[in-house]
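[Meeting: bench + compute handoff]

Bench side (C.D.) handed over the final construct sequence. Compute side (W.E.) agreed to return the predicted structure before the next meeting so the bench team could plan truncations. Sequence as handed over:
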Amino acid sequence: QGWLIFSEVSYLVNWGFYVVDTGRYAEALAWCEQTLAVEHELALPYGHYLAGVARAGLGETEAALTHLKAAAEAGFDELAELTERAELKSLHDQAAWPALLTRVGQNLG
């Protein structure tokens, strides 16, 4: 049963990245909701991360930061992904950005 959950999470996360990468942010949010509903250790960081990217892509700064903070708290540790993602560039000047980077960096160790 654990394998089925992992397989489902892997599918949802990979499809979520695809939908975000193609700029379909509203659709990506629906995938993120499904991903987060699984409540798997991999679903939480990536579901929130992708929701944050989608919200940023839609221009929803506060919602994006809320999801990104939740991703960091859930163990998201891909600092390069966070700093290089085009949709998130608009967040770099937000007051919460440095603390978010610090928190994600702490997850690396």
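W.E. noted at the follow-up: The chain has one domain: 2-107. C.D. will use this when planning the next construct.
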